[in-house]
């Protein structure tokens, strides 16, 4: 493509400003935003909210917890160290090493951090994080992408220590959490047993709409010969067909620009195929147990009552074992909802959904339920 990647970014100034205004007004100090995968959350954080809030006087720290899901605390610490140090704050360079750490840890504890930190063997990492933050001279916007990682049981300690430190720094540190599962985020912020209980309002991330599509079409048409121009209406339809995902829509545009003669339908098909293969859906499928596949087919078909008698009988028949056991289905659901894989999410009691609509589509196409 002749233009650079950034030229294709559809800026969302107003949306970014809304969050910044709310933080600056002091009404809220945290928010949790959810939208399915590939809907533009990360791009919004990095390309809209980050530069705009820096202009508004915040120093931003972005961390994608999915990328450090085995050690989220280390990931956060590294992001804080890197991104705050980058501001050439003279104090920030002085802190973080050496014997001060212990003393600082005591101050942090005094400020009410979860008692888990009281462990003499506790990792000093978090103390360093607070130290760097406290030494930094500007308000901070902490962007925690893929925040659902903190909802897993193994990271409960990290989550509560983090919350404790953030609690006492609400004026200085504003936090945006994002995640792709509404259910998980609601659990994380809505269950009284969770460290972040009531800590941030959970709301949908506003999705890209027809304005985004028109913007992209204009860009594309600027480099296409007039007789091959992509009609806005066809592009809007393609966007809907591709489940309103900006990512898959851009693949569609790529395909169209590469070969406009083939037409819109072919480009839509290419976009789908490339999404399916890039995401390795076939490899995921191959790695699944037979019961997991049956469960996915059931959910993909939009059926309800997965733990009911008829479903158990059906699964049993497919596996050639009479009637399937309830616990086998429950185990399978647990595997598929595991935060490390996140194939399914639990939307309501007994109701499940694909986390990625494109995987659902792939299952229906490639492995339609019998
Ligand atoms: N505002 C935008 N303008 C142009 N393309 C976008 C925009 N937002 C998202 N995209 C495209 O969609 C892709 C996926 O977006 P991303 O932010 O990674 O989704 P999410 O974080 O919700 O999974 C991006 O890599 C980009 O190609
Ligand atoms: Mg993302």
From TrEMBL:
Annotated Gene3D superfamilies: P-loop containing nucleotide triphosphate hydrolases
Listed name of the protein: ATP-binding protein
InterPro entries: P-loop_NTPase (IPR027417)
Domain of life: Bacteria
